[in-house]
Amino acid sequence: MKALFKSKPRTPADLVRQTRDLLIFADGGAASDTKESKRRKSMMELGKLMRDMKQVLYGDSESEPVAEACFQLTQEFFRENTLRLLIICLPKLNLETRKDATKVVANLQRQQVQSRLIACDYLEKNIDLLDILISGYDNNDLALHYGAMLRECIRHQSVANVVLGGGQDASSVTTTYNPGTKFQAKFYDKILTEEIGGVKGHFGPINAL
C-alpha cells in the first residue's frame, strides 16, 4: 500500500529547476519574517540537490553516468541563469555544498548538447561571470572554489579569446580588476596567460577539493 504513495523520482531537469528556485530564494536574502528554520531547511535541500546533480554527472561506485540524464541536466542548467545564480550564491552555501557545486560546474563545461558545448555558448554571452569568479579570490574561504570554477571555464578557447580581447594584458581585461590587489593580479596573469597558453586540447582534471 505504501508503494502507492511513494514520491515520483525527480528527473535531471527537475533537479535543476528546484535548485534554481532555491538559489533565487537565497539570492533574494531571507526576508525579515522568514524563520531561521525555513532558511536552514532550504539550504539543506539545496545541498541534497547539488549532491544529486553531481551523482547524475559523475555516477557513483555502483553505476556510470547515463548520457541521456547528463544531456537533460545540462540543457536545463543553461536554459536560464542557473550558473549565474550558483556563482553569486556560492558564499551562502556550506562547505560541502560548495565542493559539490564546484564539481558540477566543472563537469558541465564538457557536456555536449547536440554536439555543442553549450556551457561555452553561455559563457560567451555572460563573460562578466569571469569577473565575479576573479573577485571571489578576495575571500580566503571561497578562493579555492571560485578559482577551480574559473580554471575550467576558461579552458574554452573562444571564452579565453574573448577575455584576452586581442592581446590585452591579462591584468587589464576585466572592469572589476583592482590593480592594488597584488595577489589577485598575480593569479589573474597566471590563469589567463600561462594556463591558457598551455592548453591545446580541452580539459584537464579539476583541482582536488
UniProtKB/TrEMBL annotation:
Top-rank taxon, per record: Eukaryota
InterPro entries documented for this protein: ARM-like (IPR011989), ARM-type_fold (IPR016024), Mo25 (IPR013878)
Coiled-coil regions listed in the entry: none
SUPFAM superfamilies tied to this protein: ARM repeat
Assigned protein family: Belongs to the Mo25 family.
This protein's name: Uncharacterized protein
Species name: Castilleja foliolosa
Phylogenetic placement of the source organism: Eukaryota, Viridiplantae, Streptophyta, Embryophyta, Tracheophyta
